[in-house]
Amino acid sequence: MSALRSVGLALLAPLIAVVVSVLATTIVIAAAGGAPGDFWSALFSNPLPRVRVNIVNQTAIIYIAAVAAAIGFRMGLFNIGLEGQYTVASFAAASFAGAAYLSGFANVAVALVIAMAAGAAWAGIAGVLKTTRGVSEVISTIMLNSIAITLVGYLLNRYGVHEGNSVHTKYLEGSSTLTGYTPYDTRDGQVWALSLLAVVVGVGFWVLLTKTRFGFDLRASGQSESAALASGINPKRMIIVSMLLSGAVAGLIWMPALFGGARSYGTSFQVGLGFTGIAVALLGRNRPLGIAFGALLFAFLTAQSNTLTFNSDIPPSIIQITQGVAVLAVVIAYEVVRRYRLRLEQHTVARELAPPEKEASA
Amino acid sequence: MSRFSRSWMLVAVGIIAAFSVVRLVTGADQISSTGTLRAALVAACPILMAGLGGLWAERAGVVNIGLEGQMILGTWGAAFFTYHYGPWVGVVGAALLGALGGLLHAIATVTFGVDHIVSGVAINLIGAGAATFLAEAIFPDLEGGGPRQLIGLDTPTKITIPGVSDAALAIADKHWFFVSDLAAFVGALTTGMSTLVIAIFLAVALSAWVLWRTRFGLRLRSCGENPQAAETLGVDVYRYKYVAVLISGACAGIGGASLALVSSSGFNTGQTGGRGYIGLASMIFGNWTPGGLLSGAVLFGYTDVLRLRDSHAVHALLLLVAIGLLAYAALRYWRGQRRLALVVAAAGAAFLLWFSLTDTVPREFTSMTPYLTTLLVLALGAQRLRMPAADGKPYRKGSAG
Q: In Å, how far from its chain's centre is CA B224?
């Protein structure tokens, strides 16, 4: 297969997904009595400085979430429990950092380690249940999500700082808040310092996948469990390690926000990033670069749609439909393209193995 | 009476007796009051319908994680159609919107062979997004509506069986051992019970009959056990899977309707609160059978309700759990499963200790019950759970060699 054709086929699926989701969104808007043209021009207008900063920050945390999901997906493990893992991790890290046992960077560094450990531990429960008792990780992580959210709610209520109707963990001290990068006016906000974690996580994921023995084992297990087993890969160890790794990365999801602006775990906690991460990982085909585009797209759509309320009568939640349809369309399109490619390969092989025309006719 | 139904009778009598004992020991009358039991039956309905949806799909070999999204679509559909055409059309509307979610899932998983979990996650995103958007776009213009809610809807009729209800309530008020608890249960069933709730419990019986007693049901289950074999016998596997997933979505939708029309007084964004997942959990708890699923849903509905009652009742629940675990351990020991029996008995003893050492239990812990129970059941009983053999496996037409 020629290189050009191969690239074309790789881009075909995302292209189909974008077209389908744009079409579906347009139809929904028209059916709800809105003007699709106004909507799209408002959505793709040049973002305001404030929104641009927001897009960068959101891209970073969505990217971390998506990498966490992709680590599991690459070996065929469905870690649906990112939501619970980063809830537990964020609460643990915010509690530790707020208690100010340490100060300055040491506090931040140890809090990050705690976040990763907490996320890994919560994911590890599902890993252990799968390897020792054969419990499907899909069901156990869904259950663990709900348990995590209830448990953290209880602990926050019990030990948090109550202020009026709201409750939060202790605020970070000034020395533990990291100054970000302020590209525009101060009122437009700043790009969180720990957004750089996304780059670290992304590069780390790429190195892990392509340059290490573990990454090879991971991909091998994902593509064929029996082949992996035959080549001496211990499936139980792979399940535990990749679950722990996925959970550890999930623990980092909210850290840029915590040390950037939120300063405590409470009403400022952003929920739903776990499921957004899963969606973006599917959209980006679990590849480091593909996920980056997916994260940017989701962050752009969400941030831009929040400004829509001022420009049109279409509620910003329309964008959730666009995102959902895009994910469903992309997984269907990938499946179709995969089968088409398989058929092409079979044809090529058949043609090359076939006897030459002359002899056949003779 | 067959041996099977006699053992069910024994279990029921045992449960009522356990309730009685706990009520007398702790004085927490609320744990088996008519009000609590009625609320528990109502709270069980959304879970029951989601679980039933899971049962239909998984019996045909399709894992439906999208139940949550289909249920959310159902809550919106119930509100919209009830507002315009009355509650029964509302229920039909909810079923249709749920089935629409099911259709998407069927197209992705059956026609295109996408992974079932992946498709389900996407359906949940679409369902939640669509309901939020449609509510924001349409409900603010309606009477009693806002961008995130629509309240003041008509509800399905409630019925009271005159003589039985009064007698049962009178006996329940006496707080006699056993008799009053049984009367409270009868009273809950016969006093002001919503017809939708009754219809939902009948739907479980109907599903059990269709799936296990008809030719259609046999073929549908064969698609979940061994689709290749079914294909060689001339069963149109794709068609059966489509029908099953559509029914599955419709069930989840009706569960949403019961949430919007019976459990609360209207539609709220996000009101499902993960009940689609709890439904899935109740199905697993029930080992992919209608009877087990029913007991799981009622159990989870009961804990859901008790959370909102006084904390004394929640504390009494610990003793109930301890008795239940010890009884189960005794049964297992008697059947010769010594090791499992010891583990369960230890857990029962721990609950007993917890009960005697504390005075209150944090409310939050009761809302964890469904999830913890399911994890425990999966961890301890994984060997004895049997899901359909080809559940969640991709199937392509013509793969039967």
A: 21
- Write out chain B residues lying below 8 Å of A323, CB-based: 125, 129
CB pairs under 8 A between A and B: 134
Strand partners, A168: A161
Could you list the beta-strand ranges (E) of B148-257. 149-151, 158-159, 193-194
Q: CB A335 to CB B119 under 8 A?
A: no
Task: Tell me: do A266 and A193 sit in the same domain.
Answer: yes
pLDDT digits (tens, 9 = 90+) for B331-386: 888 888 888 888 889 988 998 898 888 887 877 787 888 888 888 888 877 667 88
A311 located within any domain: no
| A330 token code pair | 């992309």
Dihedral sign for Cα A93, A98, A101, A102, please.
Answer: positive
- Interface contact A336-B112, CB threshold 8 A: yes
- Please check whether residues A144 and A268 belong to one and the same domain: yes
Task: Report, as an integer, the average pLDDT of A89-101.
Answer: 93
- Write out the residue range of the structural domain in which residue A220 sits: 49-306
Residues with Cβ within 8 Å of residue A20, at least 6 apart in sequence: A325, A326, A329, A333
Confirm or reject contact between A317 and chain B (CB < 8 A). Answer: yes
Determine the pLDDT at residue A359.
54
Question: How many Å from the N-terminal Cα to the C-terminal Cα in chain A?
Answer: 30
Q: Please indicate, yes or no, whether residues A174 and A276 belong to a single structural domain of this protein.
A: yes
Q: Which pLDDT value is given to residue B1?
A: 47
Q: Count Cβ neighbours within 10 Å for each residue of A309-344 and write b for 16 or more, e otherwise.
A: eeebebbbbbbbbbbbbbbbbbbbbbbbbeeebeee
Residues 6+ apart with CB under 8 A from B322: B348, B349, B351, B352, B355
- CB proximity A27 to B under 8 Å: no
Contact predicate A178/A108, CB 8 Å: yes
pLDDT at A358: 62
Residue A3 has pLDDT above 80, yes or no: no
CA–centroid distance for B207 within its chain = 14
Please say if the pLDDT value at position B164 is more than 50: yes
A280 and A227, same structural domain? Answer: yes
Give the residue-averaged pLDDT of A294-315.
83
A228 touches A221 (CB < 8 A):
yes
Tokens of B81: 């159609």
- Pick from B319, B359, B313: nearest CA to B33: B313
Kindly determine whether residue A315 and residue B368, on different chains, have CB atoms separated by under 8 Å: no
Judgement on whether residues A128 and A27 belong to the same structural domain of the protein: no
Provide the Cα torsion A120, A125, A126, A130; round to 10°. 120
CB B247, CB B43: distance < 8 Å: no
Residues A93-107 as b or e (16 or more Cβ within 10 Å = b): bbbbbbeeebeeeeb
Is B29-288 in CATH node 2.60.40?
Answer: no
Are residues A224 and A103 part of one domain? yes
Contact A331 B113 (CB under 8 A): no
Which is higher by pLDDT, A86 or A177? A86
| Alpha carbon distance A185, A36 (integer Å) | 33
- pTM across the whole model: 0.91
Q: Is residue A293 part of a domain?
A: yes
* Residues A20 and A336 sit within 8 Å (Cβ to Cβ): no
Distance CA B181, CA A305 (A): 55
- Residues A27, A167, single domain; the answer is no
